[in-house]
């Protein structure tokens, strides 16, 4: 399995979660053994210029924090892109570390239907309008090289257009939205044949007071005999024991009882994140 993350340039530089997950990338319990990050670098974040969005020259500089190799490639050159992607896959396969492909490209139209980029980026968009689209540029090169003929190219385009047109025509006949087809792993029996959810009925999840008392007592006891425990902690355990006896719970004890009841059913619970080891729950 190989994980591939697709980023925009502004998001790669600007979203803290990118930097945070890079720091998780090589931790024993979190690693994916190397992720390939593909940055679609259209040199604009909605309507923001890079010089107004970040302080470093490249959006991908964030990845330097884990010494990930970063390949900057001209996205107008499909063969160079293919070459770089192969190198990236090979790197990941060999060293099991993250790698970044920075596709330096441009956005031909606005951010959405309402956005006219000429208002905010007139100079850039005058240049973009002069750019030959990558498909035409590459086709011209292949035809000039004699790799394909003009007829073969036109047939390929027509074939693709036909696939799109046929799918569009078929889509008009669809009257029912089959929700289950869009689920990664359709839950059996969750939807009816028409794709409608069945009436939701949950199995009873309540547990006996006896079991709650047992979990409360375990949660407020020390598992090892003659173990001298910190006075601050013994106060917490004493308060927890009293709550159990008085049939009262606070947030932490309620959480304990939830985890405890699941564990009693033999279901593994893994906690991860800040302060878990210290038990600050």
Automatic annotation (TrEMBL):
Keywords: Oxidoreductase, Thiamine pyrophosphate, Transit peptide. GO terms for molecular function: oxoglutarate dehydrogenase (succinyl-transferring) activity; thiamine pyrophosphate binding. Residues 2-179 form the Dehydrogenase E1 component domain. InterPro entries: 2oxoglutarate_DH_E1, DH_E1, THDP-binding. Gene3D superfamilies: 3.40.50.12470, 3.40.50.970. One of its GO terms (biological process) is tricarboxylic acid cycle. Signal peptide: none annotated. One of its GO terms (cellular component) is mitochondrion. Pfam families: E1_dh (PF00676). Its cofactor is thiamine diphosphate. PANTHER family: 2-OXOGLUTARATE DEHYDROGENASE (PTHR23152), 2-OXOGLUTARATE DEHYDROGENASE-LIKE, MITOCHONDRIAL (PTHR23152:SF5). Belongs to the alpha-ketoglutarate dehydrogenase family. This is OGDHL protein. It comes from Notiomystis cincta.
